[in-house]
Amino acid sequence: DAKTTQPPSMDCAEGRAANLPCNHSTISGNEYVYWYRQIHSQGPQYIIHGLKNNETNEMASLIITEDRKSSTLILPHATLRDTAVYYCIVIKSGSEKLVFGKGTKLTVNP
Amino acid sequence: EPEVTQTPSHQVTQMGQEVILRCVPISNHLYFYWYRQILGQKVEFLVSFYNNEISEKSEIFDDQFSVERPDGSNFTLKIRSTKLEDSAMYFCASSEFVGRGWTDTQYFGPGTRLTVL
């Protein structure tokens, strides 16, 4: 699976959009981009995933560049409860194993 | 909304004892997983399970570990003789399907904190 690079930490003001970048320059055509988050030591929570197209759900939007080498997770109106570690994971279709990196520690400030 | 559940939330055991961690995956899911996270470290894959067989396992998943689906709802992880370094959060996950050409989202449980004394 392709390696991902994320900034170790980011801050965001409550109510503002949080834009979390992820670099996956070695991604191949059959690999998906998944985003999870982990609040304290709770179980990882699925947020969103995509292959090529931008995606939106009730939690977030995922913007994938045309060359697929990077993506951005957007939380449109961050709240204090969005403070968590966010993981960008690239996984090959048909693969069963999620490989977690260190992620980005997002702190939402009042 | 369906969710993965795990019991107990916290298990304390003595070194050398056997422990069984329990998980109830989402009901229509066919693939089951165990991950662990040692305090302050990354979440690590242990094993995946499908059709009553181990599908994939990591090098962490040695002979001390075993998994079982004893009935139609539970999925268990057994550690035969616990070591101090087994202390970690253990997360169960499930997904509906994994197939050639596509993959499915894994949903995680809240975890069991295992403390080995």
Describe the structure.
The complex is a heterodimer of chains A (110) and B (117). Chain A has 110 residues and is mainly beta. Chain A is built from no helices and nine strands. In chain A, strands 1-9-8-3-4 form a five-stranded mixed sheet, with no helix packed on it. A four-stranded antiparallel sheet of chain A has the order 2-7-6-5, with no helix packed on it. In chain A, a hairpin with a 4-residue loop joins strand 5 (55-56) and strand 6 (61-64). With 117 residues, chain B is mainly beta. Chain B has strands at residues 5-7, 10-13, 19-24, 31-37, 43-50, 53-57, 65-68, 75-79, 88-95, 107-108, 112-116. In chain B, strands 2, 4, 5, 6, 9, 10 and 11 form a seven-stranded mixed sheet that branches. Chain B has a four-stranded antiparallel sheet with strand order 1-3-8-7, with no helix packed on it. Chain B is globular and about 40 Å long. The mean pLDDT of chain B is 93. Chains A and B meet through strand 3, strand 4 and strand 8 of A and strand 4, strand 5, strand 9 and strand 10 of B.
How would you describe this structure in keywords?
heterodimer, A: 110 residues, mainly beta, five-stranded mixed sheet, four-stranded antiparallel sheet, 9 strands, globular, B: 117 residues, seven-stranded mixed sheet
Largest sheet of chain A: 5 strands, mixed
Derived structural class of chain A: mainly beta
- Chain pair sharing the greatest interface: A-B, 25 and 32 residues
Rounded to an integer in angstroms, the radius of gyration calculated over CA atoms of chain B is 14 Å
Count of individual helical segments of chain A: 0
Number of helices of chain B: 0
Record field, number of beta strands of chain A = 9
Q: Measure the end-to-end span of chain B.
A: 37 Å
Uncertain segments of chain B: none
User: Strand order of the main beta sheet of chain A, please?
Assistant: 1-9-8-3-4
Determine the fraction of residues in helical runs of chain B and give it as a percent range.
under 10%
Q: What share of the residues of chain A does DSSP label as strand, in percent?
A: over 45%
Helix vs. strand class of chain B: mainly beta
Number of strands of chain B: 11
- The value of Rg of chain A in angstroms is 13 Å
Strand content of chain B: over 45%
Oligomer description: heterodimer
Shape descriptor of chain A reads globular
- Mean pLDDT value of chain B: 93
Percent in helix of chain A: under 10%
